[in-house]
Amino acid sequence: MGTAADSKKEMLALDGKDPGTVRRKLLEKYPPKIARKRDKQIVVNRIEPDGTVPEIQSNVRTVPGLISQRGCCYAGCKGVVLGPTRDIINITHGPVGCGFYSWLTRRNQTDPEASPDGHNFMPYCFTTDMQEEQIIFGGEKKLRQAIQEAFDNFAPKAIAVFSTCPVGLIGDDVHAVCRDMKEKLGINVFGFSCEGYKGVSQSAGHHIANNGIFTHVIGTDDTVRAGEFKINLLGEYNIGGDAFEIERIFDACGLTLVSTFSGNSSIDQFANAHTADLNLIMCHRSINYVAEMMEKKFGLPWIKINFIGAQATAKSLRKIAQYFDDPKLTERVEAVIAAELPTVEMAAAQVRPRTEGKKVMLFVGGSRAHHYQELFSEMGMRTLSAGYEFAHRDDYEGRRVLPDIKVDADSRNIQELEVLPDADRYRPRIDECRAGELAAQGLQFSEYDGMMTEMVQGSLIIDDISHHETERMIAMFKPDLFCAGIKEKYVIQKHGIPLKQLHSYDYGGPYAGFKGAINFYEDIDRMVSSRIWGYLKAPWQKNPELTAKYAFE
Amino acid sequence: MLLRHTHPEIKPRSALTVNPAKTCQPIGAMYAALGIHGCLPHSHGSQGCYAYHRSALTRHYKEPVMAATSAFTEGASVFGGQANLLQAIDNIFTVYEPEVIAVHTTCLSETIGDDIPQIVSKARADGRIPEGKYVFHANTPSYVGSHVTGFANMTKAMVDYFAESNGRKNTTINVIPGYVEPADMTEVRRLASEMGIATIVFPDTANVLNSAMTGKYKMFPEGGVTIAQLKQSGSSRGTIALGTLASGSAGLAMDAKCKVPCQTLNLPIGLHDTDLFVDALHHMAGVNVPESIDLERGQLIDAITDWHQYLYGKRVGLVGDPDQLLSLSRFLTALDMRPVYIATGTPAGKKYEQSLRDTLAGIPDDVQVKVPGDMFLFHQWIKNEPVDLLIGNTYVKYIARDEDIPYVRFGFPILDRMGHSYFPSVGYRGALRLLEKILDALLDRKERDCSDIAFELVL
């Protein structure tokens, strides 16, 4: 590194601004202690010849009062991971709010007709609506009764219980209640200790959800379903129908999808997910634990894929074909890519005159801030700066840093399950020799290179960006588009800059796969080309002096 | 079917709430605090609370909703949140520079038992609160009451902390508008100013949660009651508290603290309750009601007579917040409609329930009222005997679609339509708007369902 061309690219990466100055401006208003902490969470990207990138502090406590984008452990567990499964009754054990706010507010679509029983509890909110009496005398009795009432009224095949903050404090043993009720009702009943204060963000909730599904559901049904090339799709939540588009592509390729964690999913699919032959990880942050545990217990390998972006979709499909190494499959995959890509490329070419060179910033989630850069680059847009809301160092720097990650007190409290190979059902799908061969051909198992390795040198990475830093970034760079969530949306737009929500897609989508890419190009084209941003000033505001002169004439 | 598991058979439930018709206290407190100029609401609890509240309010208003959090970790949950709140106060005043921080508690900090006044005095003693700036608080345990209770508690805290009497009464009237939209707050102020009455409206979210797009973001928008006004409110001639549940306690506190006499009225939704509001202003301020208001009232009556035939006898199901439900039922019965099913999640009390039942006494149908109840039960009533119209928040649209019933969005939250933050539903003009929405829903349905032969031009 260090050639003239490189430094030019680096200048371009931050719009010619000096990275040191930019960092100083982001931090100068903070009290010194806070500035020191935030300083470690803001880095200028450098990719060394060996592929390493600078260390970025992440998955650390949110600073009180700084106004972060983050939510809580419960949101990650109930809202993100378990929320999209249609046939589990999810009871929130706590005061009414947590259940209410997570009621239909993530746009996980589902198709109940895909299950024979047609169960769909997603439009419902179930809560124990805990009152002062339970805070004082304990809530187990009410929880037990609530589970009974859920069973009596709805006859579900599974009930899950999610603990909110006060439950942990008053010491309700939700797991004991669930065990009892499981025995009594004869259906699967399981609990999650996902109190909001655990961990430092939604991320802790993902981990707890992963542990719970793995312990209580995965592997409880050994039925081997018909079909070849069996895969699980992990970390795809069917926002705006993304999973439907991916399912369409899988069908076209002749792949058999055993389960998706957890978009458009049924608990039945989780139960025999271990019968598949390959796990595909979409959102590494929220679901990698399940993949690792399944590999240890059942021998399923996992690869990182990405269906956001047409080229990324094609690349991911080729990886799957490479793994199964079947000429028929490879041929079908290539045929699908050949049939789909030209339309997508045509759509990209149509928007490019208006999107080319536009600047974008993405601060969102634990994988989307990385994945969506693909779509923007397909439109010729430049990612100036990006960061995650709740990701860990491995999502930024790649899993190679896993051994170096310090586990702090907040993360240590989240249980790491001890997983051993299953005595009867452990079946390595490929041997080490073949894995090595595939690795040599570029198909990495259990590997994710992270966001930074794919971003240009000199771009700015900010973890858990605060409201203050967001405002400074806007003032310094005036991007053409900003990507974040609902809380940030109207703040940014008041600046006269469009914001694309990458949690809810602004109620559009799907954006995954080939058709999704076209939807995305069109939506972004509309947003960056909208006339409305040109109307902010009234005629008299644009030219006040002239008006005054006329008045005196 | 969306709510495909809702069956007509009503089984008793004592522990499981399904599809709640309420949410928790802190969001109401956050909303009220946004109605103070230059105020940053602060949630003393886990960061999930403020993330959820900000998201919910943002989805409802399509506006920036700023607030901060103490971001409790497991450690703070064990040892108490003092260190977190102190650090937050420091950071907020250093970085965001609000005039005032309004702290509300959560189920977490309430269960731990954090003493907010003690922490705030420590912050003051440590010099963390700049001269001339304020930190005040309301206790809002999520396991008591509902979002309406939280709104009421934060509004009362404004009185407890700021209202002061200078010993003389001026001609100003305090209006506590209740848990209503920014446009409603503007409308109650307009009605008073039409009568020539100076008011202090608190809280006041007008021009905070319906502010303009100018290309310049202001973290603290122009709107909101100022701290100076809140202080002066103790010297006002009187207080009108609109909505017993949301505003009653603040009005009483004002009377007790500053001897400002308070009249608590229903929310001025519909003809009669707007009449009561205008009449109360008339008597309290000792001013005549101008002809301009007579005109507004007359227009409302005129429109009701014009369209009465489409309203008469229609069965309506209502779900929402208690203050709104009471006034709305009174309005609907004035229109000769029949509010037959009414549910609120807020535990509004026996006295409230009785006033609701009194309002419905003349309805010949079998009337169902549940306080507190949930939307699942409400839906079951409809499964047993349908209604002609549904009025409620956005969640009601699932019932409306499943049962194919005309539906008017009204209440909190409205996540899928515009208008509620710009156009009032209080006052005579608000009543006209409600009437328009009800008629649109009923007549669109009539025309959708009627035969080609019966379809006609003029209605």
Question: Would you summarize the structure shown here?
Answer:
The complex is a heterodimer of chains A (553) and B (459). Chain A is α/β, with parallel strands linked by helices and 553 residues long.
Structural summary, described in words:
- The complex is a heterodimer of chains A (553) and B (459).
- With 553 residues, chain A is an alpha/beta fold.
- Chain A has 3 domains: 1-66 and 356-398 and 450-507, 3-Layer(aba) Sandwich (Rossmann fold); 73-216, Rossmann fold; 230-351 and 400-440, 3-Layer(aba) Sandwich (Rossmann fold), CATH 3.40.50.1980.
- Chain A contains 24 helices and 14 strands.
- Chain A has helices spanning 4-13, 19-27, 32-39, 73-82, 96-101, 132-137, 140-154, 165-170, 174-185, 202-216, 242-253, 267-271, 284-298, 310-324, 327-355, 368-378, 393-397, 409-412, 432-440, 467-477, 486-494, 513-529, 539-542, 544-552; strands at residues 42-44, 89-93, 126-127, 158-163, 188-192, 230-236, 256-262, 278-281, 302-304, 359-363, 382-387, 460-462, 481-484, 499-501.
- A 6-stranded mixed sheet of chain A has the order 1-12-11-10-13-14, with helices on both faces. Chain A has a 4-stranded parallel sheet with strand order 3-2-4-5, sandwiched between helices. In chain A, strands 7-6-8-9 form a 4-stranded parallel sheet, sandwiched between helices.
- In chain A, helix 13 links the parallel strand 8 and strand 9 (302-304).
- In chain A, helix 4 (73-82) crosses helix 10, helix 7 runs parallel beside helix 9 and helix 15 runs parallel beside helix 22.
- Chain B has 459 residues and is of the alpha/beta class.
- Chain B has 3 domains: 25-144, Nitrogenase molybdenum iron protein domain (Rossmann fold); 173-291, Rossmann fold (3-Layer(aba) Sandwich); 292-449, Nitrogenase molybdenum iron protein domain (Rossmann fold, 3-Layer(aba) Sandwich).
- Chain B has helices at 25-33, 47-61, 74-79, 82-96, 107-112, 116-125, 147-162, 182-194, 227-232, 244-258, 271-285, 291-311, 322-334, 350-359, 375-384, 396-403, 427-449; strands at 17-18, 39-44, 68-69, 100-105, 134-138, 173-176, 199-201, 238-242, 262-265, 315-319, 338-343, 368-370, 389-392, 407-409.
- In chain B, the strands form 3 sheets. In chain B, strands 12-11-10-13-14 form a 5-stranded parallel sheet, with helices on both faces.
- The two termini of chain B are 33 Å apart.
- In chain B, 60% of the residues are buried.
- Strand 3 (126-127) of chain A pairs antiparallel with strand 1 (17-18) of chain B, so a sheet runs across the interface.
